[in-house]
Please model this.
Amino acid sequence: MQIPSDTTDLLSVIIPLYNEEDNVQPLCEAVFPALRDLNRPFEVIMVDDGSRDQTVARLESLLSLYPELTLVTFKRNAGQTAAIMAGIDHSRGEVIVPMDGDLQNDPRDIGALLSKLDEGYDVVSGWRKDRQDDALTRNLPSAVANWIISKASGVHLNDYGCTLKAYRREVLSDFRLYGEMHRFVPIYARWQGARITEMPVRHHARMSGSSKYGLNRIFKVLLDLMVVKFLTQYETKPIYIFGGLGFFLFLLSFLSLGGGLYLKIFEEINLNRTPLPLLSAMCVITGVMCILLGLVAELLVRIYFESQGKTNYTVKTIYKMKS
Model:
């Protein structure tokens, strides 16, 4: 199938790969028939994340069999999020569907995601309701992380870690992915006013290869969540968070000093016998630094937006009376 120049109805499927040499051929044999059954133009962008096995060689041998396939290779391993971002950058479709390359996601679910998207949603997130992974090392940490992310973000999804999702391209505009942030796109989209839903998808046990995820990823995810929350809620008003922290420290300093004076006057305890004066002084100094840092951040934000010609708002539609 030749990809048409008109990309209005084009579907872009993005698949990051890292050391998946045994899964390459069965992956293609599963993905391409499922997409052809949708009867719509599509492209598949497979991004090799610096594999050290024969993943790239096997993909190169399949390029002639699948004209819809585009292969992007990295010089070194950069991580799943970077691979997905590269796929987005090299895609042309108005609908983007990332999925894993280990055959645990089922490409036959893509049609259901698209149907849900056609109901008016901007993001449809897959939910591995019957997840086929180790309950203790994978499912339990994932459930805890999903609960924390939902509570912290206010966007309640059962499975942030499921790569299989469907996005309208405009949701991903002006948004760069770093760290482990690909799982937080629904949060960013919701905060920008997008309509989001979640639906169960199939999940299969890994047949070959090994998982690239470990328990240490939980801490990376939580740190990235802090970054996303800051960038989306305080990007244009950093003084609110720095100033708020500064005033909290001022209050703590006042309470510490008040406590010290109470001990001195009513308990006859010398102030140099307590850490309260030192705590009060440290809180004042740190509070002043936080407020000054917030002011500097405000200046940087204004310089950034004005120099780049950016706005701190997003227009959905403009209505105008015809003359």
Observations:
- The first strand starts at residue 11 and ends at 17.
- Confidence is low (pLDDT under 50) at residues 1-5.
